[in-house]
Amino acid sequence: MEIKFEQWMKEQGLSEASIKKYADAINGPLSVWADLQNYTFGALGTVADLTEFNQLAKKIESADDFQLRNKRGMDMYVGALNKYREYLTYLGAAATEAATEAATETPTKAPTKASTKAPSAAHVAPHARLLADLEAAQQWELPEAEDADDATQKILTDIVRRRGRQMFREKLIIAYQSKCALTGSTVVEILEGAHITPYLGDDTDQLPNGLLLRSDIHTLWDLGLLAIDPSSLTVWVSPAVTDPVYRSIDGTAPFMPEAKSSQPSMEALQQHWSIAHGKS
Asked: What are the b/e assignments for 186-197, b being 16+ CB within 10 Å?
């Protein structure tokens, strides 16, 4: 279970007064001020990515108004930012260590009920024909890279494009607490801002039409091989997907943001459900 900011400070030996002071500053005055400056979309205490937090902290600390407030507060606000930065650094190191240990262990977990289902091969991905036509026409083909740097630039550009528009993705990262809605993955670098229904301009670039998804899950979603059943709010994995890793999330409950305004639109989920089941 992920340790909370307050608990981490307690384990670091901070006094109750210091713990309250730093936690209140991060989730109270600092968050309110940063929100008014349009630096954040929620409490600073919900930011789980160190790189993202460092970028926010840099903006905050460079503001004249903040420097004045911090001086009046006897450097309390800078202290709170530094302490939260240390906390995120600790979480990142702990996550890396856990991932390393998991990679060296032999899985012993028995298959879940969902993973032992016998998927029917009858289901066909809804976009299979269109995808095949596009591949045959080679519409995906881009000019060859001229050198290694050019090739790297193309790869990174493709990653940025796939992650989604920056503002949309950042809002989803905060709303979904930096974890994939369907798998719980917290590797922010591979989390993407996915549209529940296809992007058709700013009107569809809204939180109710978005999910924060791991890159591979995002691809399966766009192909109509993954969906959320709007009647039961559980994950549906197409029978065409037989890999046990993906089958294990079939029938599970997706993670939903606490704020209703950030939760997926039932209308959007129904539309995607219909597409995935060939009813559009």
From this structure: bebebbbbbbbb
Which pLDDT tens digit goes with each residue over 11-55? Answer: 888 899 889 888 888 888 787 777 767 776 567 888 888 888 888
Task: Tell me which residue has tokens 């993906």.
Answer: 246
- The Cα–Cα gap between 23 and 30 comes to 10
Handedness of CA 130, 135, 136, 141 (dihedral sign): positive
33-to-29, 87, 104, 128, 215 alpha-carbon distances in Å:
6, 21, 45, 49, 33
Tokens of residue 123, six digits? 């289901």
**Residue numbers of the domain that contains 79:** 5-104
Cut 0.85: pTM above it: no
Q: Are residues 80 and 156 in the same domain?
A: no
The reply to whether 194 and 82 lie within a common domain is: no
248 and 123 in a single domain? The answer is yes
**Pairwise CA distance, residues 8 & 36, whole Å:** 28
